[in-house]
Each structure stands twice: as C-alpha cells, then as structure tokens.
Write a structure and sequence with these properties.
Elements lengths: L39 H9 L10 E4 L4 H11 L3 E3 L4 H5 L10 E9 L4 E9 L3 H16 L2 E6 L2 E9 L10 E9 L4 E11 L2 E8 L4 H18 L2
Length: 230
C-alpha cells in the first residue's frame, strides 16, 4: 500500500476554416483539444510547491531515484499471495499496474514532534485502464474489507475501512488500512487518491495525535496537488 503511486497544464488547440467566398460564410472547424502529458520534471516542480501543515516543503524524489528499491519490492510482491485472490490488485496497489512509460515523483513530510508521516505521489503515463482501476477501488474496499497477505517476509491480516464520511472533496475515496502481523504488531494508515487530467494523485498519512489529525494532513496534500495540476 505504501508504494501506491501518483507544473500546471494547459491544452493545445487547432482551428481551421473553409476558404472565404462571395456566396458562403466561412464555417470554422471545432477546436481539437488534447490532455497534456506531464513530464517527470513538471511533476517534480508541482511537488516542490506543496507544503505540509507546518508550512515546510516536502522531501522530494522521483521514480528514477527509487528504481532499485522499487524493483526489489516488485520481486518480493511477485512472491506474495493474497486471499481472497480477487483482492490482489488492491493489496498490491500500484505494484499491480504496468509500469512501462509510467513516471512518478514522491514527496514525504515527517513531523517528529507528533510522530506523523505523510507521503504523496504524482504519477503520469498510466494506461487509461489503470486510471479506471483507481476510480473503481472504492468498490473493492467493501469486497476486500479483510485480506490475508502472505509474503516471504511473513504473513499479515489487512483490514480496509471506508471513510466516505471524511472524504476530501477532491478525492475519489479515502480509507483506513489496518495491518496486523503474525507477531501481533499492528499499524494503521489512511490512504486516498484523486485523478486530475491524466495524473494520478495518491496520498498516505499515518501517526500523529489522532485519526482526524492524520486526515487533515492527507487532505492538505491532496488538495494542494489537485489545485496545482491545471
């Protein structure tokens, strides 16, 4: 779940009209528009403008910086089993998606005083089907409310709780992910996603004084990203 990955943009237009004549009025062809494809540099610029709740800029890195770590993680995930099997995609997060042509940049905020950590990713180049999967994830929250994940590093029970009542206005969904390891250790994170144009925005927040505080951190990062992707 922690690896689920996500400059202003404009549109390009072309217009053409029929040659003028004495008997006909030129009829312009409707303008053709297309979504801008964001570059890694542009996404990094966007992330560089985002600040956490304390007004501090995020620590930013790109998928290129993390390529080695991500490949190692994918190798582990390839050996991971999820039950129910139909829930594998939501358990794997972005690791279940094709990565060819995908570029992403990651930002992290850590508040030592409160013990909170928030992260955000901006991903572009995903196939249309991948973006549709992100929008369908809310349905999987109810179908996959409890999962068993078995990996080479051990097994865990993962529980998803839909927090629709607290969903940020710009988000597709928000849910809490509770994980209990076989050793009895427990952890909890909040996760949310949004899609703006062809950019997938993913935010994760954990720790802090309360769930509401973590939600405030998550909402702040997601709203800023959506506002900056124009």
């Amino acid at each position: 779940m922690g690896l689920t990955a996500c400059g202003g943009a404009g549109t390009s237009t072309e217009a053409a009209s029929a040659p003028a004549s004495e008997t006909a009025t030129p009829t312009p062809t409707p303008a053709a528009t297309s979504e801008k494809q964001y570059t890694l540099a542009e996404l990094t610029t966007v992330l560089g403008q985002i600040k956490d709740k304390q007004g501090t800029k995020l620590s930013v890195m790109s998928s290129a910086d993390m390529s080695g770590t991500m490949e190692q993680t994918k190798a582990i995930m390839a050996q991971t089993e999820v039950q129910p099997a139909a829930c594998r995609d939501i358990a794997m997060g972005s690791l279940a998606q094709p990565t060819t042509g995908v570029e992403a940049t990651f930002g992290v905020s850590q508040d030592v005083a409160s013990g909170s950590i928030s992260s955000i990713s901006l991903s572009t180049g995903l196939e249309k089907g991948a973006l549709e999967k992100a929008q369908q994830s809310l349905d999987q929250v109810s179908e996959c409310s409890t999962m068993t994940v078995s990996a080479p590093t051990g097994s865990s029970t993962v529980t998803l709780t839909d927090l629709a009542g607290k969903k940020p206005a710009n988000a597709l969904f928000v849910y809490r992910v509770d994980t209990e390891l076989a050793s009895g250790e427990k952890g909890s994170v909040l996760m949310s996603q949004a899609v703006k144009h062809d950019v997938l925005v993913s935010v994760i927040a954990t720790g802090g004084s309360s769930e509401d505080a973590a939600m405030a951190n998550l909402t702040s990062l997601l709203d800023q990203a959506v506002e900056l992707i124009k």
